[in-house]
Write a structure and sequence with these properties.
The chain has 293 residues and is an alpha+beta fold. The chain has a domain of 88 residues. The protein has a 6-stranded antiparallel beta sheet, with helices on one face. Strand 5 and strand 6 form a beta hairpin. Helix 3 runs antiparallel to helix 7. The longest helix is centred in the first third of the chain and has 63 residues. The two termini are 72 Å apart. The N terminus is likely disordered. This is Helicase. Keywords: Coiled coil. It comes from bioreactor metagenome.
Length: 293
């Protein structure tokens, strides 16, 4: 390595990912390889950011298409139900003589009504809802919650309003009155939820229109990376051609040297034979002398 910078630039790159041109560029200090590696990291990060952007955009589009319309419609229905039940309660409160009707008997006194309700609870320890009477225009349904070991009384008007019962006869009636008295507050809470949902829907509709702010940067870096890849690929092809030519020249040189060595070896053997004292050698020397005359 002739430069420290390329060494640092390839610290996070698997060596098996380096092409011939990249190795050569690193060895010669070619700044293109460092630029290429930096661009690859930047492009990967930008693509991840864009993927997150698209994921959020699709989630908002889905919410605008399904979740917000469903939740807004449900909240509007709840508001209409609270309005109707408040009117129902107001109509019966105008006649204070109306008491609680249980199993066909109207109880004007709270003490009597509370005692009758406890008696009904003891007689119906079932998880199935059983209609047991009416109160202030609401139908009363009793059930036993086996998980919590408690009775629940549900008041049904336009909406259903549940209360957990205890062992105190006056306390049970107070809990029922508290549920009905809380209807105006629940109506306001529902209206606030509706307003919040509509604001969320508006904000989502605006957010989904926003483009990916780094799209131009991503496109520019992708284009530059493609140029560098093409340049390094050309260098690779040139390098491979040079290597092939050098290998060919080397093979030719080795072949010529081998032929020369073989030729020299034959001549040496003939010379040694001619100079020997063997009978065939003497005959060969006589023949040569006669030809020279």
């Amino acid at each position: 390595m002739t430069s420290k910078s390329p060494v640092r630039s390839c610290e996070d790159v698997d060596e098996t990912a380096l092409t011939y041109a990249e190795v050569k560029a690193l060895a010669t200090g070619d700044e293109r390889i460092k630029e290429k590696m930096d661009l690859e990291v930047d492009v990967a990060k930008l693509k991840l950011v864009r993927a997150n952007y698209l994921s959020q955009k699709y989630a908002l589009e889905d919410a605008l298409l399904k979740r917000f319309p469903q939740e807004i419609a449900r909240e509007k229905a709840r508001i209409a139900g609270y309005d109707a039940d408040i009117e129902r309660l107001a109509a019966h409160d105008a006649n204070p003589s109306l008491g609680m009707e249980l199993n066909g008997i109207v109880y004007a006194e709270r003490k009597d009504a509370g005692a009758a309700l406890l008696a009904i609870c003891k007689a119906h320890p079932s998880p199935e809802q059983v209609e047991v009477g009416t109160y202030h225009g609401f139908d009363l349904f009793l059930s036993f919650d086996a998980l919590n070991r408690a009775f629940r009384l549900t008041l049904k008007g336009a909406l259903s309003h549940s209360v957990e019962l205890g062992d105190d006869l006056f306390g049970n009636l107070q809990r029922i009155d508290n549920v009905l008295g809380a209807l105006p507050d629940r109506l306001e809470t529902a209206k606030e939820r509706l307003s919040d949902l509509e604001q969320q829907k508006t904000a989502a509709a605006e957010e989904v229109k926003k483009p990916f702010l780094q799209e131009e940067e991503l496109n520019e870096k992708c284009a530059r990376l493609a140029v560098l890849d093409a340049e390094l690929n050309i260098d690779k092809e040139r390098g491979e051609s040079v290597v092939a030519l050098e290998d060919s020249e080397l093979d030719s040189t080795i072949e010529q040297e081998t032929d020369q060595e073989e030729h020299t070896s034959v001549l040496s053997q003939l010379q040694e034979f001619a100079e020997s004292d063997s009978f065939p050698a003497r005959q060969m020397r006589v023949c040569v002398a006669m030809e020279e005359r």
